[in-house]
Amino acid sequence: MPLLDWLNKIHALQAAGRVPFRLLENVAVEGDVAGAGKDNWLIRGDNLEALKALLPFFAGRVKCIYIDPPYNTRSAFEHYDDNLEHSQWLSMICPRLELLRELLAEDGSIWVSIDDHEAHYLKVVMDEVFGRGNFVASNVWQKRYSRENREALGDAHEYVLLYTKDLSKFKSSRNLLPIGDKQRALYRNPDNDPRGEWQSVSLLAQGFRPNQMYEIVAPNGRKHSPPGGNCWKVVESEYRRLVADNRLYFGKDGNGVPRRKEFLENAKGLVPWTWWPHEEVGHTDEAKKECNALFGADVSFGTPKPERLVQRILHIATNPGDLVLDSFLGSGTTAAVAHKMGRRWIGIEMGEHAETHCLPRLQKVVAGEQGGISAAVGWQGGGGFRFFRLGEAVFEADGRINPAIRFATLAAWVWYQETRTPWGMAQAECPPTPLLGVHEGTAYYLLYNGILGDRRPDGGNVLTGPLLKTLDEGSPHAGPRVIYGESCRLSPARLKALDIVFKQIPYDIRAR
C-alpha cells in the first residue's frame, strides 16, 4: 500500500505515545445533573491529551466519531489557527487519528469533514491508520446553493471521509435512510391492491442462467422473453407464485414486460449514497443562522456545520444509546445533535469557547432549545451532561506516580495497560477492591493507596504471605494472577509455584 511521507513524520507517529496520561477533573456547572448526565461529557483541554485520558475508560466503546478539524486553508479564523504548514497539519492530525482508532468500537465508524486543501493527503493517512480495506466512501456535501464569482471555479462542496474499524461489522450495523417525500411519490395503487401502495421494479437480471430463460405470456396474450444479455430474476416456479399472489404488473394494457410489485408497507428504507445535496442535509448559511440564533451574530462561531448534516451521519452510524465522540467540537453541534437524538456523547474542545460556546449551547439543549433538528426529532429537552477540564498528569516527568493520584485512576490505567480494554467508569465509581477484574483467564490486582486499609511497609501495599491469604479469601482465583504493588516479600520460586507475576509500582507501569 502506498504511504505518505512528510517532514517529521516519525516524530508525529510517536507523538501519541509521548502524550502524558492526565486526570479529568469534573467541574460542577448547570446541566451537570446527578445521574442524568453521567454518560455525556464535555471536556475542555488539548484534544490529544484528552483522547489519551479517555483510553482507560472508553477504548473500543465509541460507536461513531465525527470530527471537523481545521482545514489548513491559510485563512484566519477567530477560534483556530488554521494557517498551518502542510507537514505541520499532517503531524497534527496523525496522532489524533491513532488515538481515535483505539477508542472506536469494532462495528464503529469515523467520519471526517475536510475540503480540497488536505482531503487527498488525509485519505492516504487514514488508509495507513485504519487500513485501506476499511475505507467506505468520500461523501460529497453540497455546502452552497448559490454561485460565487470570486474563484476560478465556484467552491460548492466539501467531503466527509468515512472509515470503519471493521468494514464487515459496520455493513451489518449501519442504518438505512428513511423514505422521503420524493421516494414516497413513486408508490401508487393503480389496480386498487388491498395491500396498499406499491411501485414496480424490473424483473430482469444481467447474465445468462438456463433455468431463468423461459417465455412469459402476458395477461392479454403478448409473449416476452429476456432480451439479449439478460435473464429473468426468478426461476419459473417462483414466477408462477408471484402471478398467483398478484405481485406482478404488466402495464396498463396488460401486455407489457412483467415487473414486480414492491409495497410501501414493506419498504425498509434507502441505502445511503455519497451525494449529499443541501436540500437534504443543510448548507453553510443554514449552519450560520443556527449559530446566530444561539449566540448572536457578533459572537457566532466562524465555520459551523448544520445540524442536519450531523443528523445524517448519526442516523446512518448509530442507534439511540450509542456513544458518539467529537474531539474538535467547535461550537458544540455534534454534542447538541447527539443529545437530541438520544445518543450518549463526548465532546472535546481546547479553547475558551468550550465554555463560551459549547457549554451554554448544551445547557440550552437540556432546557429544550428548539433550533436545528429539534422539531424534526420531537426534542423537548431533558437529560444532562458533565463538564471536565484536563487536570494533573498521573505520572511525573521521572516516571513516578503523582502523589495526588487516587486508586481508581491508577487502576484504570493499569487495566488498560495490561488488557488494552477499558476498565470503565462504572468500575471506577464502585467501592475499590484490589481485584481489578479477570481478562482472558488472568486476574489482575492492584495494591495501592492503602486499598486494604493498611499503609505500613508490611501492610496493604506490599505483597506478603498474610496479604496473599487475604486476597485468596476475599477474591479467590484459580488461574494465573498479575499483582501490582510497592514491593514483594515472596520468593521468586513461590511466585512461580503460585502462578503469580508481581509487578512493582511505579517501575512496571508505563507512564505513556
The end-to-end span amounts to 29 Å
Low-pLDDT segments, ≥5 res: none
Classified by CATH, the class of the largest domain is: Alpha Beta
Helix content: 25-40%
The major pleated sheet works out as: 10 strands, mixed
Q: Give the second-level CATH assignment, the architecture of the largest domain.
A: 3-Layer(aba) Sandwich
Number of domains: 3
Q: How many E-type strands?
A: 23
Task: Give the C-alpha Rg.
Answer: 29 Å
Count the helices. How many? 17
Largest sheet, spatial ordering of strands: 1-17-2-16-15-3-4-6-5-14
Tell me the strand percentage band: 15-25%
CATH fold name of the largest domain: Rossmann fold
Structural class: alpha/beta
Structure summary:
This protein is α/β, with parallel strands linked by helices and 512 residues long.
